[in-house]
Design goal:
5-stranded parallel sheet; alpha/beta; Rossmann fold; globular
């Protein structure tokens, strides 16, 4: 599966700072200082109802991570999946009378278009669950043969007790886990499971549903969590720098994925940092596919909204914050974009070297994008109010905003 084209990232003078970021597993801020190549895995979409503002906010956060690392003169090895076969996708296709593969392909193509418009840097490896199945099957077999998984009426389940570190990502108690498992695709009440929290690794073929050859597992399809584990281990290995996604993935998805990987390899941890973006609401409720209260990037673009303004609206909130999308937020972003473009359109201006460092400092401090925007705002206000004579300043500001915030002026 191919990703989307990359926009050019301008080089800035000097060198950026190492990233300090909140880690869900340690529940504190840690400093990440990768080697020459930083490694990041971000969980991708299940391709229906793409791309809503909640999606965009999440991928914007991890785009900032890439930009901070690139500014430190590192390479970035970024991997993202597409869950192009799963119960919610099949249910949507059935509801709408569509072929599930056509639905997945169409929505994935739309997602690519939106990511391109928003100038999100693409992953080096963009892998669908279906194409990952040949690598998933042997992992499930290994877990089963090692006693870390068991069969139940043809399905294969992972035993959470096989990982002594289980629970270390989300830090939830058993009852909270059980409730979230039921809410987020698990089956804690299924009779015969060793532990209600045990997640499915391989679902035996069901009538009328797609299935693939699973070798000794029989025909079926993979569970949700093992999909990302297989892709991450194949392309990044263990102890990569960041496992990322929305805060609703901390449990069960990232918790279970970490346990799968740790049981498979005997190594700990799967990722050095588990980083989670906040949820976006609309009209007082979390924006979600199930509720249907979605604002789509493509719809905003079709209505004439500049993608750079959409990106500024996302950047005006800290990535870990839960917030609500409103028309006023978008209007403020449109106005900010106009002010910034007017300021850098002047032939000269006030010096901007200090601004570069302010933006770097803000983003290295747990991706504090609102502080970065405020720094640019201050420069813009002085630029508009003062006659400067630095001919290089407007261009430097444009390159800084582009390179570090992904906004083209």
């Amino acid at each position: 599966m191919h990703a989307w084209p990359a926009s050019e990232v301008p080089a800035l003078p000097g060198k950026g700072r190492d990233l300090q970021i909140h880690d869900s597993a340690t529940r504190g801020t840690i400093t990440l200082a990768p080697g020459p190549v930083a490694r990041i895995y971000v969980c991708g979409i299940t391709p229906y109802d793409a791309t809503h503002i909640g999606h965009a906010a999440t991928y914007n956060a991890f785009d900032l991570v890439q930009r901070v690392w690139l500014d430190t003169k590192r390479q970035v090895h970024y991997v993202q999946n597409v869950t192009d076969v799963d119960d919610p996708l099949l249910e949507r296709a059935l509801r709408d009378g569509q072929d599930w593969t056509e639905l997945a392909e169409r929505e994935t193509a739309l997602f690519r278009e939106d990511m391109t418009a928003l100038r999100m840097l693409p992953p080096q490896h963009y892998i669908g669950a279906v194409e990952a199945i040949p690598g998933i099957v042997p992992l499930v077999e290994r877990l089963r043969d090692a006693g870390a998984a068991y069969e139940l009426e043809g399905d294969v389940y992972f035993s959470v007790e096989a990982d002594p570190h289980f629970g270390g990502v989300s830090h939830l108690d058993a009852e909270a886990m059980r409730l979230l498992s039921a809410e987020r695709g698990g089956d804690p009440d299924r009779p015969g499971k060793k532990n209600p929290l045990d997640p499915m690794l391989w679902m035996a073929a069901r009538p009328g549903e797609p299935s693939w050859d699973g070798g000794s597992l029989g025909r079926g399809r993979p569970g949700w969590h093992i999909e990302c584990v297989a892709i991450a281990l194949d392309h990044l290995g263990m102890s990569f720098d960041i496992q990322g996604g929305g805060s609703d993935l901390a449990f069960p998805h990232h918790e279970m994925g970490a346990s799968h990987a740790q049981a498979l390899t005997g190594e700990f941890p799967m990722a050095k940092a588990y980083v989670h973006a906040g949820m976006v609401a609309l009209h007082g409720e979390k924006m979600s596919k199930s509720k249907g209260n979605l604002v789509f990037v493509s719809a905003l673009r079709r209505s004439g909204v500049d993608p750079a303004a959409i990106r500024l609206a996302l950047l005006s909130h800290h990535y870990r914050a839960d917030w609500e999308w409103t028309d006023e937020i978008l209007a403020e972003a449109v106005a900010r974009l106009e002010r910034w473009r007017a300021a850098v359109s002047r032939p000269d201006g006030i010096p901007a070297d200090a601004l570069v460092e302010e933006v770097r400092e803000a983003l290295s401090n747990d991706l504090d994008a609102p502080a970065a925007l405020a720094a640019v705002d201050r420069w813009v206000e002085r630029q508009i109010a003062t006659d400067g004579d630095d001919e290089s300043a407007p261009g430097l500001v444009s390159r800084t905003v582009d390179a570090l915030l992904g906004v083209a002026l």
